[in-house]
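Data deposition worksheet. Section B asks for the primary sequence of the deposited chain exactly as it was used as input, without tags or linkers unless they were present during the calculation. Section C holds the resulting structure in token form. Section D is free text for depositor observations; keep each observation to a single sentence. Incomplete worksheets are returned to the depositor.
Section A, Depositor: J.P.
Section B:
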Amino acid sequence: MMRPRAIVVLAARVAIAGVFLWAALPKLWDPGTFAADVQNYRLLPEALSGHVALFVPAFELVIAIGLLVPGYQRGAALLATGLLVIFSGAMAQARLRGIDLSCGCFGAAFEAKVSWWTVARSGSLSLLAALPLLLSSPEPSSARAQPERLTAES
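Section C:
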């Protein structure tokens, strides 16, 4: 039987994996719209927007898969947490600068204006993504080779 802590960690990993998968797919299908969303934040040079629009959804997809694959879960949780903190910061700066834009969080499939609610949602998701890091311990690596001892007979 799973301990309550393990259940919470599993639920957090599955939930964040679902969010990242849901976020990645529409952006992968329509990178042009996502590139425009990235550009609207006015954080990057225009020349980088297309590259970021291709990289971010692929990265989200890799993170989603990593959250579900044993051995990669803690690393994926760390990457998910960091990415969500970056997203929260980008949205917060847009609000503070008075930039009116769609968050681009889920591509064109789910248009949502950047608001303090979307900043809070992203921040809350970053806390959820951090739970596997905070509540689970790293798995010991059985792949670590023990150094061979040299003997006089060698």
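Section D:
The radius of gyration is 19 Å.
The chain has a mean pLDDT of 90.
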